[in-house]
Backbone:
């Protein structure tokens, strides 16, 4: 601790103890509780929930003599069952990250040059408030947009709505699961959601299409996956790369990238033609089945073989295999679905295949979720919105529902149409890595009058900000309650387990302070976040104190399968599972998915595909000392034959050049049999260019940098990113 | 006499390194050092590949070159469960034990002593499982007394096929990999 | 294709074992050479030749004392936990060659000092006149001198053997895992010691004698090498791979050129010619032998650490 913060800390703790003494009924416990954590002795275990990804597992933080020691899963938590994933276990590294932002910063030279002046919080807020008021006066409040990913942004969302803007987005839709949600909603009238409502634990046949569980470490899914493996469930993996999941599979289908829809159609045609579907389920819940049959029955495995490279017999065998175990046969919907531009239709095909198997609403398929209902805080009503969001002008993408299209807001910021966007708040999302085509992101930023980034480290996007606000990491703050929909309803709390090492602050405090500066203090009527949480919890007959000690409170179990009494409800226009979608037909799209061919890489080029490493989350964990220790750079997977042909040795560094001439950082070659010869693979999130991220600067290469091209899904505006081709640049 | 060991199901392990990170935080293993690690081994030509993923650490061998070679008695066999441990206050950091281990399971801690997996004996003696076992999200690690025929580990070895690492080195490792 | 990846990354262990750097080979070499010198000096004392030779008494043991201390210092430098070095002497570990080594050193020093005391140098006597008195007393007892000789030979033998046993008991390194390593190191130590005496002896006959002895040692050393490789090559795969590291692998150039060529064969030829009076004795051959002996220790320690039952880092 530096001397400044020590002085400040003495002042603050003195003050709290004094207040506590005044308030004290049971003085002793109160004073003890309000004592700085770092001054306490002995071992304390404080529950909270993890923020290393969006799964929000319940965790227990261990504080040993006032120092953060470790985090473990909270056994009471149904998401983690007491076991965190590697990132969650490494969460303590977020607190100890030497690269953390320490104080608010204001830009001193050109945007992106990463030259800063350290300022006080008050100075930072004055700067922001002045710009926000100016933008409101000149352009209207709609001209400020918020990009916010994760639960931490909830107070900023409230701020931006109170301010009067409808523009609030995240990369979780148009760069992630948007197409999947749309495809499923079109079919079943409901989304898959997060956490995915997949009953992997009870499935007897699990089909994974790209879903690389075991590398994708979404905790509950991985735990259930291992149980499925143990129980001997039949596992079918479709991936151009021999993933970890593939190594556990009974059938591995080494598909040519971009052709999954052909495989799905062939599978459906076999199931339909051989009448292997769940006829009772379909007649009870489905509609448009005959039209659907007429369309899909023509796709033969022989046809699909030409597209996908997968042997017709293998296609037949796997179709029969998944049908054998219906309805406990789950075709996983995937999550990051923005691959080729026909993703909503591919996802719809996955939904339809599941519908054939009768797995939606059934044990071993997709269960029905429940969430704890906790009333919202009784805020005053928001000001009426005068304009619609800019994310999807004229409803260009008619099925972009649920969330807004991040790249749509970026586009509006570039073009100024339908109206100018002049301010960006960016919370917890590294837009430089998350959005395709970095040039467009920079172009948009250059049109702004105000660019605020709230982050915990000097991320690449922070480098482009006017004001950078350093946030406390999740272990140091309260956030809103977690009431994720799951097999059982529960509520989880995030609470501070340790103090911030420097002058970092929690987001709720920032939102409240900014609101007060711009005359919106009435929207933040609570004294502090504890009062906010207490109010909400009391409205649900819960106690903050109890939740703080337990971390998790569960509601009574309710049925989650149709067969156990869960109410089948399909919120489609027909109220049924739509095998044929009139909505799509009316909007001029294929009512039953059809195959579209995607261009192949030109000679000498390879399709760039990417994915997850178990120990990292996107671009946010590379400087975490514990996780960096596990993996500090990514590698380029190159098939052995290709490596031999191009003279690439295992372990050498090369660069990649994409179809638009963009050249990457250098990246280490991993020569392996575990990938096809027409594509190369890397883990997303590396190759970061923020110079202040000393420990991770330029380590590995960035897929995002090479994704200059993207194809937009005409249904919902998702940006498909698996459409870039790269070639090797030897001299590294 | 108990003989502690691990039985690890390679069919379930996904190589996520959670066990490695849990070990690091639990045991305050310094940055850049690993008491446990993941080995991924594959054979074959794409797409016909066989792959095994294993989490490895000191095997707490029954035959211990690392203990025999130690000139100070720092490397020793603990009286509970036959766990192989290093007494930091006796270790001179001569590295003989590091050289002697066919699994390269040891390293020199920045504080100067030879370090390696302790089977989390500090936890085990309190009735807890080792940190790596406790964290594993695939439940593929099992810890217990191999000399007790009724223990979970013994039963797994009775019912499944398994291998050990480098049996030819003659160390009689006590970590078994189910295949 | 067979692919193996490991996430382990421990310093000096991964990707290949390199825990022991220069200190250990230097220590092993100096230990081996001192052992050789003790055996030679001990033999001189035992056989009564010390009276004629100027080296056997004082010079060899005194040099040994210095070299051994340097070796010990190198070993000390290698310790990662230096302040605890005394822990070596609060225990005796029966199965640990290193523990044996520590205690052998405790025996070696008095033996060397006893040898020195038989005929201390003028310089020492000037400082500590009493030494001359002690030396006089020792010289009156031939049995005592013989016994000092025996002890020097015995402890030298133990010391020399120990330098090899230290490595060969570390069964994890196939290259070291040969029961001939101690013989190799012992013979190599003897040859380096003989070379040293050959080099420094002022007495012609003594120098000549040691040159002849050295030739013998070099021939034996070559023979031990052959036997050692035969042994390794007829064992398990890791041993074959270990042997090949030296014979035709990564370490082959340095092994063939510096250890076999310049360390044994060439000096052997030169010295054979010299003892047969075809050429004059020059310091070249003995220096080559000594340097070759040092390089031998480096090669064996380094290649041994490289050799492995199972190398998870190959690809
Ligand atoms: N450790 C870790 N886990 C995570 C995350 C993380 O950052 N770190 N992020 C989470 C989030 S938000 C998401 S969205 C998910 C994403 O994870 P998933 O939804 O499981 O996977 P994707 O990103 O869609 O795809 C990556 C896999 O698809 C394969 N692939 C590439 N192209 C094709 C193709 O054309 N066809 C087929 N069939 N396969 C293809 C790749 O080889 C790779 O195995 O991961 C989640 N889990
Ligand atoms: N090229 C490419 N693009 C992708 C993907 C891909 O695989 N490849 N994946 C897509 C998918 S599936 C998704 S879900 C998105 C994910 O996109 P993002 O959610 O933007 O993910 P990150 O890149 O990890 O950026 C998170 C940012 O939040 C910051 N942060 C971390 N913790 C905190 C905190 O406590 N408070 C605050 N204020 N900030 C914090 C981090 O430092 C980092 O700058 O990316 C999408 N874009
Ligand atoms: S899945 Fe892992 S990173 Fe995500 S919340 Fe759970 S423990 Fe944390
Ligand atoms: S935590 Fe479990 S699944 Fe993950 S690598 Fe370790 S043993 Fe394997
Ligand atoms: S694995 Fe190595 S360190 Fe562990 S007991 Fe066996 S030989 Fe000793
Ligand atoms: S390093 Fe320590 S534990 Fe290992 S052999 Fe030497 S003294 Fe014993
Ligand atoms: S048993 Fe304990 S010390 Fe050994 S690897 Fe597991 S966590 Fe680490
Ligand atoms: Mo995502």
Residues:
């Amino acid at each position: 601790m530096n001397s400044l913060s020590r002085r400040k800390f003495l002042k603050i703790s003195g003050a709290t103890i004094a207040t506590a003494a005044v308030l004290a009924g049971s003085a002793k416990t109160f004073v003890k509780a309000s004592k700085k954590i770092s001054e306490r002795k002995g071992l304390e275990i404080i529950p909270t929930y993890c923020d290393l990804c969006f799964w929000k597992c319940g965790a227990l933080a261990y504080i040993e003599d006032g120092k953060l020691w470790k985090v473990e899963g909270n056994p009471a938590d149904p998401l983690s069952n007491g076991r965190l994933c590697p990132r969650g276990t490494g969460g303590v590294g977020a607190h100890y990250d030497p690269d953390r932002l320490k104080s608010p910063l204001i830009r001193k030279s050109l945007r992106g040059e990463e030259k800063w002046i350290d300022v006080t919080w008050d100075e930072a807020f004055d700067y922001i408030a002045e710009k926000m008021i100016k933008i409101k006066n000149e352009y209207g409040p709609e001209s400020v947009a918020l990009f916010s990913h994760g639960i931490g942004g909830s107070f900023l969302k409230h701020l931006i709505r109170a301010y009067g803007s409808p523009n609030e987005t995240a990369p979780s839709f148009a760069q992630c699961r948007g197409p999947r949600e749309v495809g499923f909603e079109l079919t079943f009238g409901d989304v898959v959601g997060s956490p995915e409502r997949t009953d992997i634990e009870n499935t007897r046949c699990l089909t994974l299409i790209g879903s690389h569980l075991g590398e994708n470490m979404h905790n509950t899914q991985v735990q259930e996956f291992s149980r499925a493996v143990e129980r001997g469930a039949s596992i079918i993996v479709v991936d151009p790369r021999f993933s970890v999941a593939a190594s556990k599979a009974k059938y591995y289908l080494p598909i040519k990238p971009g052709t999954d829809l052909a495989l799905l159609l062939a599978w459906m045609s076999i199931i339909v033609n051989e009448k292997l579907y769940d006829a009772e389920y379909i007649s009870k819940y489905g509609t448009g089945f005959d039209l659907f049959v007429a369309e899909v029955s023509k796709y033969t495995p022989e046809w699909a073989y030409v597209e996908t490279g997968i042997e017709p017999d293998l296609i037949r065998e796997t179709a029969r295999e998944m049908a054998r175990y219906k309805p406990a046969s789950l075709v996983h919907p995937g999550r990051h679905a923005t691959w080729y531009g026909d993703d909503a239709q591919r996802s719809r095909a996955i939904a339809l295949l599941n519908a054939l198997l009768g797995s939606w609403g059934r044990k071993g398929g997709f269960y029905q979720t429940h969430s704890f209902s906790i009333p919202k805080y009784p805020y005053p009503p928001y000001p009426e919105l005068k304009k619609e969001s800019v994310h999807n002008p004229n409803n260009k993408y008619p099925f972009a529902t649920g969330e807004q299209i991040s790249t749509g807001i970026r586009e509006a910021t570039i073009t100024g149409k339908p109206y100018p966007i002049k301010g960006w708040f960016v919370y917890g999302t590294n837009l430089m890595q998350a959005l395709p085509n970095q040039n467009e992101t920079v172009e948009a930023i250059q049109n702004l009058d105000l660019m605020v980034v709230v982050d915990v480290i000097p991320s690449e996007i922070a480098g482009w900000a006017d004001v950078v606000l350093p946030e406390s990491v999740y272990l140091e703050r309260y956030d809103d309650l977690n009431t994720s929909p799951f097999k059982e309803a529960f509520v989880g709390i995030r609470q501070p387990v340790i103090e911030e090492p420097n002058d970092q602050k929690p987001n709720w405090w920032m939102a409240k302070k900014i609101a007060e500066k711009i005359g919106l203090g009435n929207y933040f009527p609570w004294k502090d976040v504890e009062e906010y949480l207490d109010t909400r919890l009391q409205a649900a007959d819960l106690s903050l104190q109890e939740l703080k000690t337990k971390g998790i409170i569960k509601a009574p179990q309710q049925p989650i399968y149709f067969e156990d009494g869960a109410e089948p409800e399909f919120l489609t226009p027909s109220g049924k599972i739509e095998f044929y979608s009139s909505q799509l037909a009316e909007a001029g799209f294929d009512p039953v998915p059809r195959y579209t061919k995607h261009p192949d890489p030109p000679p000498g080029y390879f399709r760039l595909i990417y994915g997850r490493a178990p120990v990292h989350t996107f671009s946010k964990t590379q400087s975490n000392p514990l996780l960096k220790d596990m993996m500090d750079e990514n590698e380029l997977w190159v098939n052995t034959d290709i490596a031999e042909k191009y003279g690439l040795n295992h372990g050498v560094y090369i660069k990649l050049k994409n179809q638009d001439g963009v050249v990457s950082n250098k990246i280490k070659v991993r020569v392996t049999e575990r990938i096809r010869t027409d594509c190369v693979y890397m883990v997303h999130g590396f190759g970061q260019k923020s110079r202040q991220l000393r420990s991770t600067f330029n380590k590995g290469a960035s897929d995002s940098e090479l994704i200059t091209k993207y194809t937009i899904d005409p249904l919902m505006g998702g940006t498909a990113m698996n459409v870039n081709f790269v070639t090797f640049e030897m001299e590294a | 006499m108990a003989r502690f060991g691990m039985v690890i199901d390679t069919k379930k392990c996904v190589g996520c390194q959670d066990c490695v990170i849990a070990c690091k935080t639990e045991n305050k293993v310094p940055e850049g050092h690993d008491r446990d690690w993941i080995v991924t081994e594959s054979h074959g030509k794409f797409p016909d590949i066989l792959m095994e993923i294993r989490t490895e650490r000191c095997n707490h061998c029954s035959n211990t070159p690392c203990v025999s070679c130690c000139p100070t008695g720092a490397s020793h066999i603990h009286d509970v469960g036959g766990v192989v441990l290093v007494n930091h206050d006796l270790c001179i950091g001569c590295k003989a034990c590091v050289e002697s281990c066919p699994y390269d399971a040891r390293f020199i801690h920045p504080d100067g002593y030879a370090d390696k997996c302790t089977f989390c004996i500090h936890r085990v003696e309190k009735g807890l499982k080792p940190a790596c076992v406790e964290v594993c999200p695939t439940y593929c690690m099992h810890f217990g007394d191999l000399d007790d025929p009724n223990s979970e580990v013994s039963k797994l070895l009775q019912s499944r096929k398994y291998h050990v690492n480098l049996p030819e080195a003659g160390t009689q490792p006590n970590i078994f990999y189910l295949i | 294709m067979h692919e193996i990846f490991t996430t382990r990354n421990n310093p000096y262990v991964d990707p290949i074992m390199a825990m022991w750097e220069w200190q250990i080979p230097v220590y092993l070499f100096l230990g081996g050479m001192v052992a050789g010198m003790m055996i030679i000096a001990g033999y001189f004392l035992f056989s009564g030749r010390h009276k004629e030779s100027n080296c056997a008494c004082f010079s060899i043991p005194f040099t040994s004392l210095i070299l051994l201390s340097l070796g010990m210092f190198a070993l000390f430098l290698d310790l990662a936990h230096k302040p605890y070095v005394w822990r070596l002497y609060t225990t005796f570990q029966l199965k640990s060659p290193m523990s044996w080594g520590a205690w052998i050193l405790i025996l070696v020093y008095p033996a060397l000092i006893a040898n020195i005391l038989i005929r201390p140098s003028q310089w020492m006597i000037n400082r500590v006149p009493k030494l001359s008195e002690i030396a006089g007393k020792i010289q009156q007892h031939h049995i005592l001198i013989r016994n000092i000789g025996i002890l020097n030979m015995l402890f030298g033998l133990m010391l020399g053997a120990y330098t090899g046993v230290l490595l060969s008991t570390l069964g994890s390194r196939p290259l070291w895992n040969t029961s001939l390593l101690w013989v190799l190191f012992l013979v190599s130590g003897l040859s380096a010691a003989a070379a040293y005496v050959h080099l420094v002896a002022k007495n012609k006959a003594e120098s000549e004698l040691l040159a002849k002895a050295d030739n013998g040692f070099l021939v034996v050393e070559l023979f031990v090498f052959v036997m050692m490789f035969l042994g390794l090559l007829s064992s398990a795969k890791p041993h074959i791979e270990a042997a090949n590291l030296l014979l035709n692998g990564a370490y082959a150039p340095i092994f063939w050129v510096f250890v076999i060529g310049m360390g044994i064969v060439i000096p052997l030829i030169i010295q054979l010619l010299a003892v047969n009076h075809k050429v004059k004795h020059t310091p070249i051959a003995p220096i080559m032998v000594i340097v070759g002996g040092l390089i031998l220790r480096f090669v064996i320690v380094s290649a041994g650490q490289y050799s492995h039952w199972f190398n998870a880092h190959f690809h």
In short: Chain B touches chain A at residues 9, 11-12, 14-18, 20-22, 24-26, 31-32, 42, 44-47, 49-53, 134-140 (CB under 8 Å).
